[in-house]
Structures are given as structure tokens and as C-alpha cells.
User: Fold these one by one.
Assistant:
Number 1:
Amino acid sequence: MLEIELCKVKMRNPSMLASGIMGTTASSLNWAIRSGAGAVVTKSFGLEPNEGYPNPTTIEVTGGILNAIGLSNPGVDEFSKELEKVDKSVPIIASIVGASAEEFSQIAGRIEPLVDLIELNVSCPHAQEGLGASIGQDPLFTSEIVKSVKKTVNCPVIVKLTPNVTDIVEIAVSSQMAGCDALTLINSLGPGMRIDIDTANPILYNKSGGLSGPAIKPIALRCIYDVYEAVKVPIIGVGGITDYRDAVEAIFAGAKCVQIGTAIMYKGMDVFKDISSGLEKFMFKKEYESIDEMVGKAHS
Ligand SMILES: Cc1cc2nc3c(=O)[nH]c(=O)nc-3n(C[C@H](O)[C@H](O)[C@H](O)COP(=O)(O)O)c2cc1C
């Protein structure tokens, strides 16, 4: 009863590994799959290798972490070799990043044979100029990318949105109009900062970074809730989901499935099995027969 279909792709349960956390190699993706993830999303990768920022790239804050990794990745050619080694027993989602519609489409075309779905990361709050949230803050630019990628590939295309906008619903609606098949909400919040009080310097090399973890869950839920009322495409909820209760909240707000990121740093890969077994018991107790029955329940 945990099974769902996302854009006609079957998942054994509604939990997914979120992009950027342990999704950089075939062995870490396979580890998440063995640990019970219903699907896995890769770390975002681009056309060319990107070193990202020097350390420190992450720092703990109350209720989560700040990260400014700077989208470090080995580029599509190297990443393709990793993807060839990934266990295909669950859906594999490639998260891709680029600076133009042309670049996104080139990567999408090259990676499509190795994956089931593609997630467009137009929402990183700490990427180098041109690669990050600035794209996802512009509905026209985002739509141009979606249209171009949809012309290039046949697999479902997901757009991952940033909460760092005045009106996330506007970007969600325009992405849907451009033809996306699903939306992932939300990427990390901010950017935010911490200062070392001994040296009086910002702690992160990049000075600021995206906030993730339990602290952003209320923002994620609000984004999912508002966007659910305005779109027809399925929503993948992400942001602070740490246990089955958080997953239920996201599903009731309107998410069809959920991604788990920072919680892996707190709980390890066991988090996937914990969420699935908690969800199953909750559904039994409340007499829900399917996840679909629960999606958007907070709106009725
Ligand atoms: C260390 C780290 C790296 C991340 N890298 C990416 C990335 O490469 N691409 C992306 O779309 N999101 C990335 N994210 C954002 C997560 O996928 C997720 O949207 C965000 O962390 C909120 O979920 P969480 O609170 O469960 O971590 C990253 C997050 C963290 C903490």
C-alpha cells in the first residue's frame, strides 16, 4: 500500500534520496536503494566538471545545516560512468544544472538513456553566477529551459523550485505551462550565514549557504500547500523531512512523495526504512489504503 506512480513510473514507497546528499557515486546511490529508498536523485551535475567551493562548505545551525558546496560535480561524462553502475531496481532521477536552456538540453539528452526521470535544478541558493536560484527566480527563463528540455527528451521532466522568491506559485504555474511533468519543492532556503566569534569571519568559505533540515519544514509545507492549489502536476515534497510524521504532513499538504536530505546526516540511511514503516503503521491505524488517498488531504 506504500506503492505510488510518479509520472507513470512505479515506486515501491514514496521516499526518495534528495539531490546532493550521498548521491555523488554509484556506491552511495546503491546504498540508499539497499536501505529502502523508493527512488534516488543524483547530486546535481553539469556539462563540465566543477570543483565547487573550498572548505568549509557546511556548518551546523539550530534546526539544520547551512551548505555552500557550490555544485561541485565531475560533469556529465564522468557521472554517466557512475550511473551505468547504479542498481536499476528503483527509479533513478538525474539532477542536472546548467547556465542556459541549450546546456540543460544537451545534458538531458546525454543522460536520458541512463535514468528514468530528470530533475532540473534551477534553484541552488549558493551556486556560481548564472547556475543557481537566479534562474528559478525568473519564470520566463525557467519556462524556456523546461520547453527546451521537453523537446529533447521523452522521459518525465521535474523542475525543482526555490523558496527564495516572492511568489513560488507563479513559478510553479509557469513551469507547468511550459510542460514540466512534476515539481520538486523546495531547494534549500536563504542563503544564510554564521560568523566565527573568535576570528570575526563568516564561517563558510562562500560566506553564505543554503539552509536545510527541520528548520525549513514549515516553509516547505507552505510552499507545497500553496502550489498544490494551483497546479495539476504531481509535487515532490522536500525540506526538513526527518520522520514519518513529517512525510505525512508533506503528503497532506499536497506532495505525492517526499525526498530526504539532511535527515540522513542525523539518522543515517536507516531513515528510509523508518519512514516507510512509520507510514505503513500510520496508514493502517487511520485506515488509508493508499498514499494517493492521503495526497492533499489538508485541503479538504
Ligand atoms: C549538502 C547538501 C548538498 C545539496 N546539493 C544539492 C544539489 O546538488 N542539487 C539540488 O537540487 N539540491 C541540493 N541540495 C538541496 C536538497 O536536495 C534539499 O532540497 C534541501 O536540503 C532541503 O531538504 P532537507 O531539509 O531534507 O535537506 C543539497 C542540500 C545539502 C544539505
Note: The chain has a mean pLDDT of 95.
Number 2:
Amino acid sequence: MGAADVTAVPAVRLTGVSKAFGGKNVLSGLDLEVPVGTSLVVLGKSGVGKSVLLKHVIGLLKPDSGRVEVGGVDIWSVSARERDQIRRRFGMSFQEGALFDSMTVGENISFPLRRHTRMSVAQVRDRVAECLELVRLPGIEAKGPSELSGGMRRRVGFARAIALKPEILLFDEPTTGLDPINTDALVRVIQKLRESLRPTAITITHDLKVAFQVADRVALLEAGRIRIDLPPADFEASDDPRVVAFVQGDSAMDEETAPLEVSG
Ligand SMILES: Nc1ncnc2c1ncn2[C@@H]1O[C@H](COP(=O)(O)OP(=O)(O)OP(=O)(O)O)[C@@H](O)[C@H]1O
Ligand SMILES: [Mg+2]
């Protein structure tokens, strides 16, 4: 956005990344560059490999070939210990929320702080409160996850993801399964997080409205590669057949438009 601010090293860069499962190519020579501070949204049909892409970015999956760089460092050329350090620069909210049901909200959010820092009890308590305020759920530390609605659980998951003040946020389908009111609330939380933390962010979604609300850039993942990567207004106005097909498929999502699974 704005003037050409040429920051030398992108936050995340994938070069020629390929990954197959059981002989089926999911990523096929994928290239992607995310400049520091950019909010990238990746769209794509169900099963196309969006979660797989995100897991490559954070080093939970290793590419069959190609490079994954975080802040200019090839994460598979360093030791496991260094890779672990690099992972701590990320905050990830997983597609399935993944709160610990046996812990309170406060314990869930403080988990990474207690595990990875030497913060005092008071510092941890303050940071947890701050994170809950950022996701607009102040004061619910003592509640259990089972007492919360689906939308609130997602927001607590966000609070946990930002506890260590990550430089890079990864959101996998943050609004899927939520009603429009909770979706709007969550979008506002993402926008607020971006304003207050100014992180680099990669959000996976198949909700076009959400995409246009949180993105500086919108990319389309199709057949193993990033095919389109444009500012939201240009993406929306694009007459590229792949964009048109995706947008139409999204508005008429049913079995007839679902992609055929080709195996072998
Ligand atoms: N660990 C794994 N082992 C084997 N196959 C996998 C694994 N992870 C993903 N896959 C396969 O890779 C393909 C892409 O999966 P992925 O979860 O990335 O899709 P997606 O785009 O995130 O879909 P959705 O929109 O439904 O979340 C699927 O065919 C899936 O079955
Ligand atoms: Mg997924």
C-alpha cells in the first residue's frame, strides 16, 4: 500500500515449494513473498492445500523440494533448535481453535508465556489481561472454554496466539462456521490486532467478504501454486477466468461446483 517502501527482506518467502501426499501433488513449485507488515489473504477451494501452505510457512511441514525463508533464513537449513526459535516469531490460530478444555481461559492464554518466558506471575497476569482486551473479551480469565460460544472460543484462541507478541500472525479459517454477527466481531478483532501490533499476517479463508475486509493483498491458490496476487480492489475487479470461477463458485457453493478429486 502507498509509496514503494522497499524493505529488503520479506517476512516470509517460499520459493519453488512442492509437497505431495501419497503421490498426489498438493503444492507444485509454489512461489510466495510476503513483505513485512503486509496482510495477505489466501483464497482457494476446499482441499486445494491452504492449510498445508500455512503449515509450511510455520515449519510444521517440510517441503519435498523448494525453500521456506522466514526473515531471510532458510528454516530447513538451520538446526531444529533454531527452527523452534523461528516458530516463536509466529502466532497461529488453527482451523479447529484447539483450546485446552481442562484449563481456564487465563491458563490457556498464559500457557505459552509460562512455557517460553521467564515472566513473573504478575507480568503474566497483566499480559493475559491485555490479550483478552485486544480480542474484546476483558475479564473472562476464570471461565472454562466450554462456557464460551464458538465465536468467543476463536477469540480466546487469537488471544493465546498473540500472547508472545508475534511478528507474524497466521489465521486458518478464522470465521468458518460462525454466524454473520460473530464473523463481523472477529473481523473487527483482526483489524484491531493489525492496528495495535502491526504484524505481518497471513489469513486463510474462503469467505470473500472477510478477505476484502482484512487484506492488503489477496492471493488465489489453485493447482498447487499462487496464481493471482493483487490488492483487494484489483482482485475484485479482475476478469481473470480463475478469479471469476472462484468468485462464482463461492457464491454458488454446492456439490456441482466442488472440485473433482483426481488421485494417482
Ligand atoms: N498430513 C497429511 N497427510 C496426508 N495428506 C494430507 C495431509 N495434510 C493434508 N493432506 C491432503 O492435502 C490436501 C490439501 O489439504 P488442506 O488441508 O491443505 O486443504 P485446505 O485447502 O486447507 O482445505 P479446507 O478449505 O477444507 O480447509 C488434501 O487432499 C488433504 O487430504
Ligand atoms: Mg484448511
Note: The pocket of magnesium ion (ligand 2) is lined by residues 50-51, 95, 172-173 (CB under 6 Å).
Number 3:
Amino acid sequence: MEFTLFEVSTEPGDCLNNGTATTDDNDLNFFQADQNGFTVGGAQDSEATSAGQVSSGTVVVHSYDYGAYGKIKAEATIAGALGLARVDGTGEHFATVPLDEDDLVNQPKQHYRNNIADAWELQAAGNAGLAADDADTSLDNTHNGDGLTRYEEYRGVDINHDGLVSVGERLDPTRKDLFVQGVGFGGDSPEFSCGTACQEAEIRVHPFIGVVGTDDRNIDILPVYLNAIDGGHISRRGSPYGNGVRNWTFDTLGRSGVGDADAYATWYPCQVYEMAVNYYFGDRPHLDHMTWTAPAQWTGAPNGVLDPVNPERVEDTNDDGELQDNETDGATNPPLDNGDLFLDGDHPVRDGLAWYWYAGLSPMDLDNDGKVELPMQAQVPVPDSIEAEKAQVVRAVITHEMGHAVGIYGPWDGHCDDQTCAMYRWSNSWTTDGHFCADCRAMVLIHNN
Ligand SMILES: [Zn+2]
Ligand SMILES: [Zn+2]
């Protein structure tokens, strides 16, 4: 009795991204140590022959690729004549490895003969279909497909770089797959994390571990960098100063080039400015001075929070760190002051012409709890819902810049006019990273070249 493997796949590597692209070895063979009573031979160990006369036989097929496929036939010499076995059920002279039959019963078919294991096709709606289809969809978007065929999605990507294609690393052929990699995050900075805006738009985001340029054969990686060099301090906005609310702003927190149909973040890498983020949280130009107790009186101890300009609890009503005439006139009309030449109440401190960043309190964090407020608030108490920790801010910036990197470039200088969207043209909230609006979703271009 002799078994032969033939028409065996020769996929390079062992899955979509791992291994070299040049090997042409068969993906299935008979491995001698696996066999009992059969001797392995033939080209690339494709034949297994019984050692003597048998009435039945079993061989073990070894697979070297997560997308391996081929055919196996059995021959026997019976009474001097060579016979080719038929397979029960199909009547064919070969069996498929793995089992890969055409569904002749159901409509629509639940499995196809397409070099994809029927077991996988039966696992989830959408897994069954033609091998070459690439018709993944995402919400509010007409650019169907993600550059990976059904067979490729089945063959799988070693996303976590453990050398295996595990459950979940065979992909969903109905959903676009976006592979991202955070570079430089962690340590003293928040870990890489993105909001659920992509997920909500039915795009799968996979944090890819592995070397970009080596382990990303057949897939496209969007690297998101934590830039440790660029980014400036918070700053006082505009002149004339103030409008009753302290008017400070943070420096640009991130930037990305816009993606197209072939590449992510073209012309400029997707990045978060670490220093700008740190200054946003760390700059504390306001002195926690004696606390207002009654009109024109500051006799209370420092209270640990930044007191408001309106209602008037500080003398420095234009928030510039300097004592102007109208802040020393002793008038009983606003601005109310006590007429002395000291700046009473909380105020920012200057170091020459520059702000002194270590005075104690931040206009971004009025209640001084380590979380910044957006939109900026006039006074404490601050509602929990508008405060954000550093990790949340970084996640929101990552999500926004990733949006640009995958092709979102709206009419408002690249942004949209939907304030619930992560791509809104103003920084209005750190809690919108779970949503892209329909206009923004429509621009997303996911590809794998
Ligand atoms: Zn933007
Ligand atoms: Zn939008």
C-alpha cells in the first residue's frame, strides 16, 4: 500500500507574515518519525509505502503552513494488480488535506472547495466563500476590501509575534484589518492604546508586535510614534487678555500625514508629542496664594485649588501675573481689590518674560487632582465627566492622528464639524475617541499590500 501527497501548496513562510518569501518547499509531507509501518520516500517525503502486506493502513500528514493544502491518494497492489483507491462519499481518486469539499446541499453554500479548510468555513458566517474574494466592509464606507483575500485571512497573521497563528489570528474576511504598532510608548509614558472609534466603525485594529520591515510581509503596519523631542509648554491665549475665564491653551499634541489607498500616514509619520503632553499636565504657572474671604479681602489660607476670576476671587482679573492700576485702585466696583500693591489671590508667576512653570497650580487642572479639564472650566468643583488622565488624553490623540493616518482629511483643515467625532475641528473633549462621524468613516482607506 502506498500513499502519495500531490498538488501540495508551496506557500512561502508558514503564515501570511512569518518566514522568508522565497521557500518553495511543499507545505505537507510525511514525516518518517510520525509513521507506523510505512517507509517515507519520494520527492520532499511525499510518498509513504507499507513495509509489507497489510489489509489496512494509516499515515500521518505533517503540515508546515497555516494555509497548507493538497491532495492525498492511496494505491494498493492487490493480486499483482495496482489499484487506485476511491474516497468514500465523493468517489474521487483523492482526498483533500485539510478536508475541503464543495457543499452540494445548502444554498448559500456553507463550504467551498477553495483550499480553505471546511472546518474554518463552518466556524463563522462569512468565512465560507471564494478564496480570492476581498470584500470586507466597514460602516459608512464604500471602499470595500482590505487587501487580504479570504484565503489570506484564513491563513492568518502572527500578530503577537509568538511564532504561531492562534485562535483570533486567523482573520475575519468580512472585516477590514488595520495593523498598528505603538513605538516608544510605555515606561514613564502611557502605554499605547487607541479609542474604540475604529471598532465602532467595524474596523478591526490589531496591535502588531514584530519588526516592521521584516515581519510584515503581505500586511501594512501603521506605526504610531511617541515623539520625545518635540512639543512646547502651555501658553496664554491672545490679547487683550481674558474674557472672565482663564484662557490658556496647550501646544499641538500630535500630528500625522494623511493616508491614501496604498500607504498610511504619507509624508509625515503618525505621532504623539510627548513633551507637549507632559507640559499640558505638568506646567503649573499659578501660585496658590491667600484665599478670598470677603469682597476685597484675602485672609484665608491657600486652599489647594485655582480660584476663579469670575466670580471674582483673585485680584489678577486679567490673569497676566502683573498688577495693573485697576487691580490696585481699591475700587468697590469690579475688579474688586484692597488697594495695596500686592497681587492678592491666586495668580500666574512670571520668570522675566517667561512663565514660571513650577508655581504650583495649573489652569488646565483647576481642582489640582492630576486630571485636566476639557472644555476648560471657570471654577471648582469640576464634573468628573470632563476631566481626563494623561492616558486618556494620549489615547484620544492617538485615535485622532490614526484617523488622519488612515485617510481622514475633512473640509475643516483636515477635520470635521461634528463635535461628537474624534476628528472634530476643535479640541472640545477627551472623551470622543469612541466615535468617527459618517463623513469621516467614509474617507477611511484600509489596505494590506
Ligand atoms: Zn487633526
Ligand atoms: Zn468626523
Note: Residues 104 and 230 are 62 Å apart (CA to CA).
